[in-house]
Structures
1.
Amino acid sequence: MLEQVDASVMRRQTFALAEAFHREGVVVHLMETPRQASPNIVFLRDLFFMTPSGAVVSRMASQQRAGEERHVAAALAERGFPLVRTITGDAVLEGADCLWLDAGTVAVATGFRTNSAGAGQLGHVLGELGVSVVEVPIGPGVQHLLGSVVPLEERTAAVHSAAAGPELRELLVGLGYRLVEFDPDDEVVSARGLNLVPLAPGLVLMPAGAPGIRRRLEAEGIVVRTAEVGEYVKAAGGIGCITGILHRG
């Protein structure tokens, strides 16, 4: 984490974020975790990846996050979501490195959080559903694929210009995506302004404190909602990191 985090403020921001989702018609499941869990468990996006058949539970690359997987598996099962695979063996995979690009294509970024073996195990699950996994290298200066690209609407994506490598760009353009470029300024890097969640085509929920990014998105025709998540930003994350996506219409 980048700064000392106030857990009580973080908790208030969690409930306010849940309410922001509720206002947009999103069903929210709040996850309570055992006291012995790592503080990083708040970053739920990393801990699983959802497929049409159910969740693939991650296997964390960092030693300090080992064991978080069992807590998210229990929470998913308690809420009735099937668990179709747990990443095992020498494979590591984190959900924030995996991204649906269309109904038949998932991008997986490999680097220091996800390896090729992890991408292969996910590919086995998705291959049975007729979905292709395309492996791309993680870009420079980001922890996950989530830091490089985020869809805004069908075939339009925001990209962190310095972190979106040629392989990722070729994949996106080949699938017909229009790329909205953002340079690595303070709003992108420090305020985590692109660490957002698309709620519907052309509608996103993004962190407060990045007015330049908001103006740019609105100029592109995107409707923007904001929520204050400053304590999560201190912990090197944002709205996208703390939101595990369970289902989209």
2.
Amino acid sequence: MTEVLERRLQDAVSAGILDAGLAGRLKTFWLEQDRAAGSKKTVSRADAEEVRFVRGFHDIFIAIGISIFLAGLVYALKGSVPPGAVAFAGAAAIWLLSEIFARRMRLALPSFLLTILFTPFFFLTCLGLFVGEDSTARSAGAAFDNAHAQVLIPPALIATLGASLHLWRFRVPVGFAVVMAGLLFLGIVLVETAVPHLVQNNIAWFTFAAGLASFLAGMVFDSRDLTRSTVNSDKGFWLHLMAAPLIVHSILNLATGGDYFSDTGSAVIVISMFLLLSLVAILVDRRALLVSGLGYFGIALGVLMSEADLAGEAGVAGTLLVLGCFILLLGSAWRFVRRILVAPVAGSPVMRIIPAAS
């Protein structure tokens, strides 16, 4: 069932035309019909990993207008009012625009943009109230300094609640990732307040834990939509997209001690970890982990080629060719590789959380 039909069912329940029980049964009936029409089609849709956040150039046009309007608003108020007041004006404007473009018109890209922007503006507003205008920027940039971590707790908590309220009101899928980011930031601030310098001295472990928590949250939504045909797939996608760079960077940092490309041994470790993460990405049918690690993979290849006396333009060309071939071959053989990886776990409880291989 498409996102549009699901929203229409919700609107019908809100208008009193259908009760929630009847709407749920109707939704189940439609989903069963879709499955009966042929599992091959729905599996192919899952493998495609569709992203529904822009539906036409009209969305792009409105998003450009929103960006220009907010930039003009901030520029007009900057210097004449305190920074916290500027942030409050921006947050209020974003909420009003969300009422128009996210709740009433249901435009995908403008809703995405407004959801992403609301929480930072609202957080800076809270920061100005609790920290003071003169030290707002300093405190925001010293989140892992215990002297400032404690004062960040109220702004982080209220901003996360504000993000949750925005999600409840407008139900934009990327809002789940925004709320998750707020919760993770709040958790890090609380830990740093309770145990000074613990986060600062073990940042890689904390970013890895944050990425893993986001990845698991994404898998929860993926398990509710194995055919990737409802809005749960979009919720999972944005959580995976947020988790990927946190996981990739943290694992490589821990595996190499932060010295990724100093020698051949480090480059081999980077490539090995990238291939391992690629297997996980293929198994769960999410490409975000792959995309986040491509930069590391490419640089590691360059190091190996330089060690093989391929320097300068020849090394760059060789790196780009190998990297491009890897992406093209894996992309074209994605379903074939998934069939191989999924075969050993077919019929096991693992299949309750990952799509079937076509």
3.
Amino acid sequence: MSGTAIAINAGISVAAYCMAVRMIPRFREMFIKANLFGNDLCKKDKPQVPESFGVLIGCVFLVSLFLFIPIPFAFDEAAATDVVTGGKPATFPHDKFVELIAALLSICCMIFLGFADDVLDLRWRHKLLLPTIATLPLLMVYYVNYNSTTVIMPNFARGLVGTSLNIGVLYYVFMGMLAVFCTNAINILAGINGLEVGQSLIIAASILVFNLIEFALGHQVDSHIFSIYFMLPFLATTLALWKYNK
């Protein structure tokens, strides 16, 4: 019943977009009064533009996913509630549930760090360390559930090291460094009108298209469904911010 869960997720995403579109202009003056603003240097009169709206959009995104938490399991036969005795059966997919909660925890940490950066003006060395810390919930859950550190090698390297290679603890180092790269590749373009949120919108849309294609082809269905659950509300809330930020 994953199709039903995706449809509900899409409905929640539309509601999140509508909520974000209504909230952004209403919070404008509040952010400016809190001295969280900059001047738009791309216009002659250099009007004041509120900053740190990412925390507002992030909250809408999180609320939409919080409301969605029980949905995938409500339509999962293995996770259905026992109507006779109540509670969850022994077959409840605790591993999937923990993955969902860990992902939300990492996102909460990243939103907090982003807001702290806007308020405290963190140095670059802090921006390199903090995203890695925010990924710890995901990495620890992955370690407990899977702990697979084998990577598939590209065709040109298979003659040297084989089809796959177990890189051990370096896998976790790589994943932490990947989080640092992804967050700062976005953050470094902050302040250029619409570009920061615009590239987030393009990346989210491309990931969602890839998920839908792979889902239709039946490739790693569970993983792509899990990604869709996050990409739909992220795309919706990002689109709302881009509407005003472009």
